[in-house]
Amino acid sequence: MRSYAKSIALYERTKKALAGGVSSNVRYAATPVPLFFERGEGARLYDVDGNVHIDYVLGNGPAILGHAPKPVIDAVAASLAEGQVFAAQHPRETELAERLVRLLPSSEVVRFATSGTEAVLMAFRLARAFTGRDKILKFEGHYHGWSDQAFVSTKPSLNEAGPADAPVPVAGSPGMPASVLDDVVVCGWNDLDLLAAAFERNKNEIAAVIMEPVMVNGGPIEPAPGYLDGVRELCRRNGALFICDEVITGFRAGLRGAQGRYGVNADLSIYAKAVAAGFPLAMVGGRRDVMDTLLDKGVMHGGTYNGNVQSMAAAIAALDVLEANDGAVYRELERRGTRLMQGLAELAKKHKQAVKVQGLPAIFQVFFTEGAPPRNYRESAACDKDKALAFHTALQEEGIRTNQNAKWFLSIAHDDAIIDETLAAADRAMATLQ
Ligand SMILES: Cc1ncc(COP(=O)(O)O)c(C=O)c1O
Question: 12-28, pLDDT tens digit by residue?
Answer without folding.
Answer: 999 999 999 999 999 98
